[in-house]
Amino acid sequence: MLIALLVPLALASVLFTVVLLRSAIAKRAKPSAEGMALGAITNFFDTLGIGSFAPTMAWFKFRKLVPDRLIPSTMLVGHSLPSIQQAFIFLILLGLLVDPVLIVGCAFSLMLGGLVGAPLVARTRVWMIQLIVAVALLIAATLYTMSNLEIMPPGGTANSLPVNLTIIAIAVNFVLGILLNFGIGHYAPSLVMLSLMGLDPRLAFPVMATGGALTIAGAGTRHVLIGHLDLRVAMGIVIGGIPAVFVAAFIVKEMPLEALRWLVAAVVLYAAGVMLHAALRGRRGERAHTVLAVDAAE
Prior knowledge:
Radius of gyration: 19 Å
Largest sheet: none
């Protein structure tokens, strides 16, 4: 069963790598040095349980490194290969302990949602993307706070779920796959959901990592082919993130993260406010433009 999961991951990573490299060579996209540093830091702490999406979005916004419209797709592509690495690690360490139906069902459902959602980002208005990202950041800040206050669901001890809960988990993962394209990470919502259903929280990681890796590889490939991203920054995150995952997983392994979570929560909350302000301003500007267009037509 483990081989049956690792083979699709390997194929997905090879396909994604080929598409990414071909696009980078064709566009002469030189990896961004700032992107490499960002990828190393965020993926290091992501492997230790902090998460990479919210800090990456916050940094993009603070530094104006990527236009708001391109934030979700650039981030998704950038964290692709490091996420696949994490999936390999979690599957090898814990994969055999989890119900294979749950892993496979959630993984492929998340990937299908990711493929469906990938083209939607390119067609979505800027202010709507800003609003969605702001909400994602607010959710992330809330979950960081809950984790530090130790009020996250404690979880159970099960390594599988009843059939009805497995079906619900698979369905929810499809929705999370769509939202992943807009920068809403699926790790925290999945961990909360699976813990409430009674799954051992440790065993949720191979479920989440496998789905995330397949989804990011699939949706990331579509984003690269569509070309709606900052390829230089994405390449930098990939290059910086790959060694950082190995260092975190096999050398550091664990470290006290509570203070860092509080810092990240504060930064992410501020970034959410900035993004929300930009979304509301963009929405007002769109309404004013519509009114002027109607007046001119009359």
